[in-house]
Design brief:
Low-confidence stretches: none
Number of domains: 1
CATH architecture: Alpha-Beta Barrel
Helix content: 25-40%
CATH superfamily: NADP-dependent oxidoreductase domain
Largest sheet: 8 strands, parallel
Mean pLDDT: 95
Length: 333
Amino acid sequence: MRSRHIAGAPVAAIGLGCMGMSMVYGPADDAESTRVLHRALDLGVNHSDTSDAYGAGANERLLGPVVRARRDEVFLATKFGIRLPDGAAHSAVPGTRIDSSPEWARAACDGSLERLGVDTIDLYYLHRRDPATPIEDTVGAMAALVAAGKVRHLGLSEVSPATLRAAHAVHPIAAVQMEYSLFSREVEDGMLAVCRELGVTLVAYSPVGRGMLTGTISGTDQLQQDGDYRATGAPRFSADALPTNLVLVDEVRKVAAEIGCTPAQAALAWVLAQGDEVVAIPGTKRLRYLEENTAAADLTLTPEQLSRLSAAVPRDAVAGARYAEGAMRFIGH
């Protein structure tokens, strides 16, 4: 596995997003997910990404035994800031709120350390920001966690370039996690340039468009049968938007076939080609998809192939928002 860097630490160019192991993408299978976590490390995928909001802490508890058994092999990232109502299993429910207060940063970190069963988190993100709380106050509290040895590096997720600059002035920000794929290109409007200027790694989540770019999704009925939240909670997968978006996927499929790879591999290679400061964390809970994704790190696309992939999914051609309206209001502060 080719390596890139977060704050000087070598991380796999393609890491592992763990959210779907515990929520929203159909039933959980902890035994299979545990096999995936171990196999990822065997393949050199050392960057594992979770959050206290994933399965209301269940995802951190799932990762804990694997991380503890192989701690020296894992670059562990988790997040705080999305607070779920009591009894909720994920954030796509009424009553979810954002809390980026210094008090919650301290309490949430202790909770994550306990669930994971580790002494130190390698990369601790603010998952979402409450604009009513000055980012300087939040990062100041996060910096105190670094000083206390509970956290090694700090990150932010789905913030604005201005917030990144303000945060970085308080304490170095190692990484910004943003949705980035052929289907989601907003980071190109300013965030990617600021990351390059400040030496911040851009961690691309949903780099295959929440599975859209795998080429395996044929309709909303398929998702409904699996109990998958995308059938009702992801606008790009709605009955109105999906047919338009699948036409774009077919164009990606054609380019991928000529390259000699799968659509998902082409999409991942495209993301990595956007700069050495970009790493990708596709999510999966299946061994076959882990190995497919990991192989994309070995692909080197020509300028012509990159151009054709970009042209296959024009930014103004994608139908539907990234998130439902309720979740979109937490983005970009």
